[in-house]
Amino acid sequence: MRTDPSGTRLPLRRSLVFRLLAASLLIAVCAITATAWLAVRTTTVAIRQQQGQVLADDTTVYRTLMTYAATHPGWQDVGETVRDLAARTRRRITLTAQDRERRPLADSAPRAGSLPRQAFAVIDPLWVDPALEPSSGTDRIAPQAVGPYRLSDADRSRLAGAAAKTAACVTRFGWEHRSSVTPAGRPRIEITGPSEQLAQKLREEGGRSTLGTSTGTYCAVADLDVPTAGERTALAALNTLVTACLERVHLPPVEVGLDFLPPVRDGDADAATRNCVDTSRREQLAPSVAPAALLYVSAESDSPVPGFDLSPANTGRIIAVTALVLLITVGVTVVIGLRLVRPLRALTRAARRPTRPDLRVPVTTRDEIGLLTTAFNELSEHRARTEEQRKVMVSDIAHELRTPLSTIRSTLEAAQDGLIPSDERLNASLLEETLLLQHVIDDLQDLAAADAGTLRLHPEPLDTEDLLHQVAAGHRAHAEAAGIVLVVQAEGAAELFADPLRLRQAVGNLVSNALRHTTAGDRITLRARVGEQGLLIEVADTGAGIDPADLPHVFDRFWRAEKSRSRQTGGSGLGLSIVRKLVEAHGGSVSAAGNPGGGAVFTLRLPV
Questions:
Q1: DSSP-derived secondary structure letter, 110
Q2: In sequence order, which residues have a C-beta less than 8 Å from that of residue 493 and are 6 or more positions away?
Q3: What order do you get walking across the sheet with 293-299 strand by strand?
Q4: Which of 113, 128, 419, 588 could form a disulfide with 414 if both were Cys (CB 3.0 to 4.6 A apart)?
Q5: Helix axes 51-71, 79-89, angle to 10 degrees
Q6: How far apart are CA 407 and CA 431, in angstroms?
Q7: Does position 240 have pLDDT exceeding 60, yes or no?
Q8: Where are the alpha helices (DSSP H) in 352-457?
Q9: Using an 8 Å Cβ cutoff, are 524 and 563 in contact?
Q10: What letter would DSSP give residue 151?
């Protein structure tokens, strides 16, 4: 448990420094543990890697890629297969074209460095390495390379059904058999011998074994070897190639079946015939298999695997490094944590002193905490200004309400004492003061609604020129009585979508303000025109004007240029503030301009 400067007891586990320290320690321990595990794991794999396992993996890679080459006409999509093999064998696998440039076809680790000088093997489904793939046979053609002999789906389905019937027939006769499917998709059934019961019966009958042959004939085993239409077409093309080859060596033609075995001939003719069959098969299968490629299989890294010796010296080094890392982590975390906490504590102390709105916190950093401190200081300044404005407003409101209330009270007391007769003149005076009081209250209510965002507008299409004439008509009697000329000018005024009552109130307040600051012979002009910033409504007068020092304050509440606050030189001080709020509610703005003795211009900017 610890105590901060404000006196509040803060649990240690909730301290920012403690949490930063705990997080850093956890990260450091995890990092060290992961590094140690990785080192041990890598070393263990390197020690367990044996030559036999490497050879088995290399053979698997060779056979897998040989199968791919035998079943694909090119190497375009071999990349995924190479990456999968590399992931399983943890070896770098590279395929290159069999040319002088050794153009790369696929590489599981293209950034691992140069390739070995000698290729591990040649991937050619037409010339299989018997040492790596003993099932290739004497012709050295991959069994998976079937090319045009691959059965269609319809032929596969038909032959599969026939094979199932044949297998059931052979089983019914009591003979054992073995079922298989060739790479081309043709099912095969091979009778391996009689069952134990049938063998005993044959021994009792004198060892006759012709039943197996008759069973195969009766169950139509040989019918499964009848070529399909597609196979007959492929065999015809093959026999054409074989015949052409035999003619070149001056030998008579032969007929080759699905087993691709030519009839036996005497002497050199037999070897030449077999060579022609193999050559013709390679020529026929070449378009269906991938071209020959060089296979490189190497370790994922050319650097030697380092040894790992957990001797007492190495163990001590590991412990020392671990302790050093932990010590540095703790030290850095404490220093950083204290630097982070110090300004936060200063902010906390300042925030807990609401009676000191002028209190400021020094900005000592440029990070997020520095930004927070700056924002706090700005908030304190705004709070101080708001408090000062509140005090002034309360004073102004009290002053504005006190005057009419005092007048009403003194008049009523005088009438009650018989000093003033209760006649129509007294009632008119009381009514005037009551209306003034009501006017101040209504203005305050409008400002409060605008500040709260509850000021409701009822916009509708509005002609600007008609609006100005209506305002002028409402103030013309007062202007003529004071000898002031009131003029309306509409220069291409546009139609607005605004609240007509609120907008007339805003323009009327400006005209009333101008009437209070002009004398007989002056001129007030209401002007509307369309500018770059929208529709401009100007109320200009040739009266006393505005001092430049007073321009920033003309829209403040309860502000008057006349410090005496006489009713004869100004109103309540809320009219221009209401103008600004009403215009802003319509999405516009208002400004004032003028010089002492040269008149004043108030401009409303409204969106068209």
A1: T
A2: 463, 464, 465, 468, 528, 529, 530, 535
A3: 104-107, 91-97, 293-299, 121-123
A4: 419
A5: 160
A6: 11
A7: yes
A8: 368-416, 424-452
A9: no
A10: P
Whether the CB-CB separation of 540 and 603 falls below 8 Å is answered with: no
Q: How far, in whole angstroms, is CA 575 from its chain's centroid?
A: 52
User: Which tokens hold the place of 457?
Assistant: 């507008």
The residue to which tokens 């053979």 are assigned: 59
Both tokens of 277, joined, read 């069959």
Residues 6+ apart with CB under 8 A from 110: 104
Average pLDDT over residues 229-246: 88
Topology given in CATH for the domain delimited by 456-606: Heat Shock Protein 90 (3.30.565)
Residue 272 phi/psi, 5-degree rounding, is -65, -40
CA separation, residue 193 to residues 66, 153, 206, 535 (Å): 35, 32, 17, 108
Alpha helix segments (H runs only) across 193-311: 196-204, 210-218, 229-248, 268-285
Spell out the domain ranges in the chain. Answer: 2-48+311-336, 51-135+291-299, 148-225, 229-288, 456-606
Half-sphere exposure of 140 (CA within 13 A, CB side): 13
316-361 pLDDT, tens digit each: 666 776 777 778 778 777 777 777 778 778 878 877 776 666 677 7
Amino acid at 393: M
Alpha helices in 251-354 (DSSP H): 268-285, 312-351
Q: Give the residue carrying structure tokens 């691992």.
A: 112
Torsion of CA 489, 493, 497, 500, to 10 degrees: 10
CA–CA gap between residue 39 and residue 45 (Å, rounded) = 10
Q: φ, ψ for residue 76 (rounded to 5)?
A: -60, -40
pLDDT at 305 over 50: no
Q: 10: pLDDT confidence band, cut at 50, 70 and 90? A: low
Tokens of 188: 């095969």
290 pLDDT exceeds 70?
A: yes
Determine the 3-state secondary structure of 104 from DSSP.
strand
Whole-angstrom Cα Rg for the chain: 53
**Closest C-alpha to 155, from 185, 181, 182, 183:** 185
Model confidence pLDDT, tens digit, residues 351-395: 777 666 667 778 776 666 777 788 878 888 877 777 776 776 666
pTM comes to 0.42
Pair 85, 93: CB distance under 8 Å:
yes
Hey, which bits of 550-599 come out as E strands? 589-594
Q: In what order do the strands lie in the sheet with 534-541?
A: 485-491, 523-531, 534-541, 600-606, 589-594
